[in-house]
Known about the structure:
The chain is of the alpha/beta class. It has helices spanning 15-25, 65-72, 78-82, 102-109, 121-137, 149-155, 182-191, 197-207; strands at 6-9, 28-29, 39-42, 47-50, 93-95, 114-118, 142-146, 164-167, 211-216, 229-232, 237-242. The strands form two sheets. A seven-stranded mixed beta sheet has the order 7-6-5-8-9-11-10, with helices on both faces.
Amino acid sequence: xxxxxxxxxxxxxxxxxxxxxxxxxxxxxxxxxxxxxxxxxxxxxxxxxxxxxxxxxxxxxxxxxxxxxxxxxxxxxxxxxxxxxxxxxxxxxxxxxxxxxxxxxxxxxxxxxxxxxxxxxxxxxxxxxxxxxxxxxxxxxxxxxxxxxxxxxxxxxxxxxxxxxxxxxxxxxxxxxxxxxxxxxxxxxxxxxxxxxxxxxxxxxxxxxxxxxxxxxxxxxxxxxxxxxxxxxxxxxxxxxxxxxxx
Length: 247
Ligand SMILES: C[S@@+](CC[C@H](N)C(=O)[O-])C[C@H]1O[C@@H](n2cnc3c(N)ncnc32)[C@H](O)[C@@H]1O
């Protein structure tokens, strides 16, 4: 696992900002020349991660070519069908596993109100940074919160329960998995894999008004309950569970 304990900045003017983040996340502030790996870097344009073993820097960029390609070809996005999004129907979505925010962005871009939960404070920092840059460019209904999904589901569910709960757990890299995108590899190296699938899905089913959608690679879900609907993409599969709260 890659543990990130340092934060750095690329220009003296950014020191104060880096210091504030260091204080709130318990990171050690260092000069950018001191360490090149496993460090959060505060730059004028974005906050990024430099990780051992990867040449590129990682940051959340909703306006990147790859995401824009997904946005411009919405019919290829089985995530929209899985979440019941169609013309005139844009449900509210609680995404329990924010990560790089890409799935959440596809849903928000289609007009849904999306709240992304992310329990890892550093991943959340990058996510929030990406969201604030996105919102400087356009108006969109997406927000994030640094919280464990189980805490959120047990504390905050009430009258404003979401229509859909979306869950994309981190899994071990399977043999048949596509040579994984570096972004997901890095995330896995930082946050590890999820072993609480059953518990989270059970909690989500009690909370969502309409459905719970679980994303997985094309492997079988290790769950005692069976999905009512499964939608397959190229390297992805969405299992859909309709909830008793359906109205
Ligand atoms: C597979 S990634 C999600 C990727 C995301 N769907 C995207 O499009 O970028 C899983 C992320 O969810 C976070 N996570 C996993 N379990 C969580 C939980 N129980 N509560 C909150 N966040 C969680 C992990 O830290 C990781 O960043």
